[in-house]
Design a protein that fits this description.
globular; alpha/beta; 7-stranded mixed beta sheet
Length: 313
């Protein structure tokens, strides 16, 4: 069985679509805050695209997801990134998601992502989960995590994006996780194999990824002073409606548009040097130097905070 939790108007192919509103294509009208009407260990794939930010109790919903999924089921979650000022004050968003969220959804310390993803966090262990009295633990192992950036940051390389995203606001607008549901012992090579596989994702993700890649490696550059206009336009296109007498949105937008420049934004000089082509090995070396340097955090954060998006030395 395959489940699209909070499918809205665009159900993921091959899934049972669950939503509070009976849109065309919805198979089961159900409030996802309530227990899911499925047997234990019955789903091999579950996707929740821009729906979990609205739930009242995320821990309860995650326990239900864990309960209905089989061992080694894939769970894909797409959500607004927490470090966006418009998301912080959205009264409909009950939950926030960032790079640290998956650390609370497993008690295992094996991880597949780099140390730079929790550089600004003092705990040295990956897992931050603590047992909840009276609740069975869940084990959702993160096998992939991806961020989607505002176009103003297309000129920065991968390591700079990581540091900017974790230290400043309005850098990334969306996050996508892929988890492997673990209910039996699993080896590290097995986890790594799953992490290297091609994983299912919403169609709009491919469009957003392609748009940002074209921005980074193509001829189009955008000026940065239009960030507020882009944010306003994006949120006006994707406003959410609430049922009368309910705090649950009637629909989430399953296909958020790619934030992009307005038609009147003139491209910058396309001959401007672009440094995103640095190798992964080079970035790891830079991160190592960053970590070891005395007072490195303060120095580098100061350097980054002085930068303006789109401006390069």
């Amino acid at each position: 069985m395959r489940i699209d939790l909070g499918c809205g108007r665009q159900k993921f192919p091959g899934c049972i679509g669950i939503d509070l509103i009976p849109y065309d294509g919805v198979d089961l009208v159900h409030n996802i805050n309530d227990p899911l009407p499925f047997n234990d260990n019955s789903a091999e794939f579950l996707i929740a695209s821009h729906s979990l930010q609205y739930v009242h109790d995320l821990n309860n919903v995650l326990r239900e997801i864990y309960r209905v999924c089989k061992h080694k089921a894939i769970v894909c979650i797409v959500a607004p990134y927490a470090h966006v000022t418009a998301n912080m004050v959205n009264p409909l968003y009950k939950q926030q998601f960032n790079e640290h969220s998956p650390r609370y959804w497993t008690q295992d310390n094996h991880k597949l992502i780099g140390d730079e993803e929790h550089f600004f966090s003092w705990p040295s262990t990956w897992s931050l989960a603590e047992p909840i009295p009276g609740a069975a633990p869940i084990d959702l192992r993160l096998i992939r995590m991806e961020f989607f950036y505002f176009p103003e940051y297309g000129a920065y390389d991968d390591l700079e994006l990581v540091l900017l995203r974790q230290s400043q606001l309005n850098v990334a607008y969306q996050i996508m996780y892929h988890f492997l549901v673990i209910k039996e012992p699993v080896s590290s090579p097995d986890l790594e194999m799953w992490g290297s596989c091609e994983l299912e994702e919403p169609l709009y993700i491919k469009e957003q990824r392609a748009s940002f890649r074209n921005l980074r490696y193509g001829d189009q550059w955008v000026q940065t002073e239009h960030l507020s206009a882009i944010l306003d336009a994006d949120h006006s296109r994707h406003s959410h409606h609430v049922l009368e007498g309910s705090t649950t949105p009637s629909a989430h937008d399953p296909h958020p548009a790619v934030p992009g420049p307005s038609p009147d934004i003139a491209p910058l000089d396309k001959k401007r040097p672009h440094r995103s082509g640095r190798s992964t090995k080079a970035n790891q070396s830079r991160l190592s130097r960053y970590s070891r340097s005395k007072n490195g955090s303060a120095k580098n954060k100061s350097r980054i905070n002085k930068k303006k998006p789109g401006k390069r030395n």
